[in-house]
Amino acid sequence: MAALDSLSLFTGLGLSEQKARETLKNQTLSSQLREAATQAQQTLGSTIDKATGTLLYGLASRLRDTRRLSFLVSYIASKKIHTEPQLSAALEYVRSHPLDPIDTADFEQECGVGVTVTPEQIEEAVEAAINKHRPQLLVERYRFNMGLLMGEARAVLKWADGKMIKNEVDMQVLHLLGPKMEADLEKKPKVAKARLEETDRRTAKDMIENGETADQTLSLMEQLRGEALKFHKPGENYKTPGYVMTPHTMNLLKQHLEITGGQVRTRFPPEPNGILHIGHAKAISFNFGYAKANNGICFLRFDDTNPEKEEAKFFTAIYDMVAWLGYTPYRVTYASDYFDQLYAWAVELIRRGLAYVCHQRGEDLKGHNPLPSPWRDRPMEESLLLFEAMRKGKFSEGEATLRMKLLMEDGKMDPVAYRVKYTPHHRTGDKWCIYPTYDYTHCLCDSIEHITHSLCTKEFQARRSSYFWLCNALDVYCPVQWEYGRLNLHYAVVSKRKILQLVATGAVRDWDDPRLFTLTALRRRGFPPEGINNFCARVGVTVAQTTMEPHLLEACVRDVLNDTAPRAMAVLESLRVTITNFPAAKSLDIQVPNFPADETKGFHQVPFAPIVFIERTDFKEEPEPGFKRLAWGQPVGLRHTGYVIELQRVIKGPSGCVESLEVTCRRADAGEKPKAFIHWVSQPLTCEVRLYERLFQHKNPEDPTEVPGGFLSDLNPASLRVVEAALVDCSVALAKPFNKFQFERLGYFSVDPDSHQGKLFNRTVTLKEDPGKV
């Protein structure tokens, strides 16, 4: 019966029966709407009109602080708040003023109470907007963005009813343009839109690459699009949905603003127990990029709370990768910097009855519905003594933990705050034998450093309740945790455990094997940091997990290398060519542009002698149709020399394999232009070149439905091909590790760090995307 009464009440507000039934399924919403409608009926003494009903529904569905329901209903029922803009302003006001009492005069001023907007004012505002855009309107007609006109009118008349503005815009536009014609109904060409989007994207990308700030901040924020655009301003944490308020919150936020000056503060908090991968690059880009876009600061904080898994090499490698990506931390900090304070707060939690020492073993705490601890209600004094005993080393590992009294979103009850570990810490030595957990440490370190935006990947969403609970339980400043989706790549594994398996089985050399997607591996392969940053920017920031194709990352890498990698010539599978009529008594010095498209970037010199080497694939004795390179009766040009060579003799070995060629040459301008120009080397360096392909054969090597035998069974046997005697022109003789080149017609290559005098190269990417890759 109650449900039928509520259904009748809701339809009386103007809701359709279907909408009313859906509302009844939401217990919280239906309860608030029922209370609002009942109060409004008592005030009005009659049925509720549809406009008022719509506002009441909007109030019930959007109001977070239920204490303000009666206050706001009274304004709606009395028609003091009668438009959607007023309701939005009222909801924003009560959210930003959570403490009692509300200043009624200030509230009414901020919500436009008593302000009347006449039809004449609306007509004038719309007419002014149309006159401003009249030339463009006459050209684009009904393809013009009418929302722009409504927005400008609304900016002038903040409290005007949106429907009235839209109706006025429709009427005046019709009067100006007349009825729609057939051409007005045609859609805008998609190509133009695509080009415009590409232009916008490139403009934003260029601004990031150039490190522009100030007026360019908007473009950087566009690259951090998605969730980042919803973020709160420093000190306005309480405006974030789900943020938990206490009587101390506003005072703590005031102190926070006094300390930070309203500055945006983020942090990148890696665990120093492994090497960073491409997913971390997104986290680094987001944390440092968001701070930079808002003239803020970003900390690099090592979460060094598990001494068993931490190694000095990981600290160094992580810092190096952050610097390599182009970011400088405001300060490098460690969770261990705050061990004394964290311990003192743990004692305070016990004193407040919010934590207790427990003796359940780890296996007893696993699963979705573990039994409550029998020690949950032990006396506070007893837990204090036992926690002190834990600190003094009187319990063995696993024999005692400190647990917090709360239930998390994922059903986990009473997460562990401290556990016993007798492993010396790399920074604090043997001072501690108890160490805090992530659940305990993370939010409190954020609080100590006055972080404004604690940016975490989606899997930490289940810890948000403990984040807010712990800060509020200790009455300390509580930052806001924001979650975003992880970045993954197809054809890759990035977990530490699985990479260790790959190394142990010999599938890869180490963490920096160029076939992996760790950042050290990508650097070794020759990926420029700008390319990785641009890729992260293009991916953007969303709540959903993102899994991208590797060729999209490679495309960003090519964009950078095309502008930064000087050209050189190399031959991977060589064929000796003797020029029988070489035009000089000794070798010639050829000037080759470092960047053929822009010769202002300089030249390098290579020798051109009677003996040159070309790619074996650039010659065919019996060419197939369409083959344009060297063949009988088909001369070919040698790049940068100004000479054309023509085949005179093919020299074969005993097995019938072609061993060398003899050719004659002529000036390129002394006859018909050849069909093709090929690269070559003369008096070259002999180098080792490593050619990399995907490490795995399937998109999702960890998916048992796609790869039933496990990821180790999915290895691509052709993921590495080593050319031990590649020939490279002598311009690379002085190249240093990580120097990058474009080997003409072959791809982009980088000097391996193990190289001696530029004798070892890794192929970074091919010149063009492989059409076989999807």
Automatic annotation (TrEMBL):
PROSITE patterns noted in UniProt: AA_TRNA_LIGASE_I
Reaction catalysed by this enzyme: tRNA(Gln) + L-glutamine + ATP = L-glutaminyl-tRNA(Gln) + AMP + diphosphate
GO molecular function terms attached to this record: ATP binding; glutamine-tRNA ligase activity
Residues of the Glutamyl/glutaminyl-tRNA synthetase class Ib anti-codon binding domain: 565-665
Domain Glutaminyl-tRNA synthetase class Ib non-specific RNA-binding, first and last residues per copy: 7-162, 165-254
EC numbers on record: 6.1.1.18
Phosphoprotein in keyword set: yes
Domain of life per record: Eukaryota
Residues of the tRNA synthetases class I (E and Q) anti-codon binding domain: 677-752
SUPFAM superfamilies, alphabetized: Nucleotidylyl transferase, Ribosomal protein L25-like
Domain Glutamyl/glutaminyl-tRNA synthetase class Ib catalytic: 263-562
InterPro entries associated with the record: aa-tRNA-synth_I_CS (IPR001412), Gln-tRNA-synth (IPR004514), Gln-tRNA-synth_Ib_RNA-bd_2 (IPR007638), Gln-tRNA-synth_Ib_RNA-bd_N (IPR007639), Gln-tRNA-synth_Ib_RNA-bd_N_1 (IPR042558), Gln-tRNA-synth_Ib_RNA-bd_N_2 (IPR042559), Gln/Glu-tRNA_Ligase (IPR050132), Glu/Gln-tRNA-synth (IPR000924)
Alphabetical list of Pfam families matching this protein: tRNA-synt_1c, tRNA-synt_1c_C, tRNA-synt_1c_C2, tRNA_synt_1c_R1, tRNA_synt_1c_R2
Keywords: Acetylation, Aminoacyl-tRNA synthetase, ATP-binding, Cytoplasm, Ligase, Nucleotide-binding, Phosphoprotein, Protein biosynthesis
Broad class of the protein's primary localization: cytoplasm
Cell compartments where the protein resides: Cytoplasm, Cytosol
GO biological process, any: glutaminyl-tRNA aminoacylation
GO CC annotations, alphabetized: aminoacyl-tRNA synthetase multienzyme complex; cytosol
Similarity annotation: Belongs to the class-I aminoacyl-tRNA synthetase family.
Subunit structure: Monomer. Part of a multisubunit complex that groups tRNA ligases for Arg (RARS1), Asp (DARS1), Gln (QARS1), Ile (IARS1), Leu (LARS1), Lys (KARS1), Met (MARS1) the bifunctional ligase for Glu and Pro (EPRS1) and the auxiliary subunits AIMP1/p43, AIMP2/p38 and EEF1E1/p18. Interacts with RARS1. Part of a complex composed of RARS1, QARS1 and AIMP1.
Task of the protein: Glutamine--tRNA ligase. Plays a critical role in brain development.
Record protein name field: Glutamine--tRNA ligase
